């Protein structure tokens, strides 16, 4: 859900979640502590209204773990986001204390120290409380300011429940120059009132990040070299599919529940052959009712043997390179004719053979030898 929105929405959401929920679990609290971004704030960040759960019963939401590893590569908060709101609440008998240990800008010529709308040290209310972190841009030029926000939450016994990582640095893009539309992502507005972009960004306002190789399968390039992949894909440029489907007959999974099939097969899992009748003599199906034959056979089903150079007009091919010749012809390719005398001899021998061969129903006494050319 988080990373299948358009580029700006994905950037806003990913950074806001990173800023607010990159928290380290240090124990299991008693009672309940919940933290979320409400639907109204979500509409500002991602364009549609839906509560985003961050902490539930003192446990981080599963999706937040991926952002911990990417903290150093998170994009800067965009120009149009001046503050981020989240809501927290302590329920049941749980009592929690919070402390903002650090609210510091590292580039005060671009942005002042971050602000909060609640005391820096107090207890988490039993009622839903909106906490707002503001980012006051200063100066008269565009730029990106680095800043720190460190929050600590403890239980009544002093055990640390949640804490932002030590030395976690975040970034805010400020637009104060005179370029029409402003320059983002650290772009500089020149005297000609055009944006000069830093490495990894391009576009009239430096609003587009450059990923090489480019993000595939609907992935979003949110910062130089960082693709956020839609559900079902992973990899540096979202080129790999997280498949739960088995592809048969040599198929390859390229999309969740979808396979690229080998020639001659079809279906979501490549389970169907395109040949209604199986290919014969070792042939393999390569298309609709089309087989790829082994050497020595041909035809759509590989049922026809091949004789090279052929059996001519006086024979027929019955096996690979084996001809059956018509009467009066012989030779490997049935191209040799018997002479007249030899033909008469063969016909005579064939006649006598048929004459002396007893019929199946003929009764012959066993003590009388059959007629033959031999002398008994």
TrEMBL record:
Disulfide bond entries: 179-189, 197-206, 243-253, 261-270, 275-285, 293-302, 307-317, 325-334
Swiss-Prot/TrEMBL GO biological process terms: Wnt signaling pathway
Record's GO cellular component terms: cell surface; extracellular region
Signal peptide: 1-26
Domain EGF-like: 175-207, 239-271, 272-303, 304-335
GO molecular function, a single term: signaling receptor binding
Listed InterPro entries: Dev_Signal_Modulators, EGF, EGF-like_CS, WIF, WIF_sf, Wnt-inh
Domain named WIF: residues: 35-174
PROSITE patterns the UniProt entry points to: EGF_1, EGF_2, EGF_3, WIF
Region (Disordered): 356-376
Keywords (A to Z) from UniProt: Developmental protein, Disulfide bond, EGF-like domain, Glycoprotein, Repeat, Secreted, Signal, Wnt signaling pathway
Compartments where located: Secreted
Pfam families: EGF_Teneurin, hEGF, WIF
Function: Binds to WNT proteins and inhibits their activities. May be involved in mesoderm segmentation.
Protein name: Wnt inhibitory factor 1
């Amino acid at each position: 859900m988080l990373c299948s929105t358009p580029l700006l929405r994905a950037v806003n959401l990913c950074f806001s979640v990173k800023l607010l929920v990159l928290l380290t679990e240090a124990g299991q609290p008693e009672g309940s502590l919940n933290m979320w971004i409400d639907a109204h704030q979500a509409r500002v960040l991602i364009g549609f209204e839906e509560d985003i759960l961050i902490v539930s019963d003192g446990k981080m939401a599963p999706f937040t773990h991926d952002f911990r590893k990417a903290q150093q590569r998170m994009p800067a908060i965009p120009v149009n986001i001046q503050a981020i709101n989240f809501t927290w609440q302590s329920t049941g008998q749980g009592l929690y204390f919070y402390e903002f240990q650090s609210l510091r800008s590292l580039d005060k010529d671009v942005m002042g120290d971050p602000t909060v709308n609640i005391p820096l040290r107090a207890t988490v209310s039993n009622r839903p409380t909106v906490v707002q972190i503001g980012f006051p841009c200063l100066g008269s030029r565009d730029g990106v300011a680095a800043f720190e926000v460190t929050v600590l939450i403890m239980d009544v016994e002093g055990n640390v429940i949640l804490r932002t990582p030590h030395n976690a640095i975040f970034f805010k893009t400020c637009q104060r120059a005179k370029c029409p539309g402003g320059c983002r992502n650290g772009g500089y507005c020149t005297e000609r009132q055009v944006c000069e972009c830093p490495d990894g960004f391009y576009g009239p306002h430096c609003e587009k990040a450059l990923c090489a190789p480019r993000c595939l399968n609907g992935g979003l390039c949110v910062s130089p070299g960082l693709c956020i992949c839609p559900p079902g894909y992973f990899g540096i440029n979202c080129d790999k599919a997280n498949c739960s489907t088995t592809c048969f007959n040599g198929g390859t999974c390229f999309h969740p529940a979808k396979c690229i099939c080998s020639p001659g097969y079809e279906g979501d899992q490549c389970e169907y052959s395109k040949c209604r009748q199986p290919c014969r003599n070792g042939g393999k199906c390569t298309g609709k009712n089309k087989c790829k034959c082994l050497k020595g056979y041909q035809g759509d089903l590989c049922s026809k043997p091949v004789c090279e150079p052929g059996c001519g007009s006086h024979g027929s091919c019955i096996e690979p390179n084996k001809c059956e010749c018509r009467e009066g012809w012989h030779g490997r390719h049935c191209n040799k004719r018997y002479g007249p005398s030899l033909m008469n001899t063969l016909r005579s021998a064939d006649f006598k053979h048929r004459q002396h061969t007893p019929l199946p129903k003929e009764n012959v006494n066993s003590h009388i030898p059959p007629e033959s050319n031999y002398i008994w």
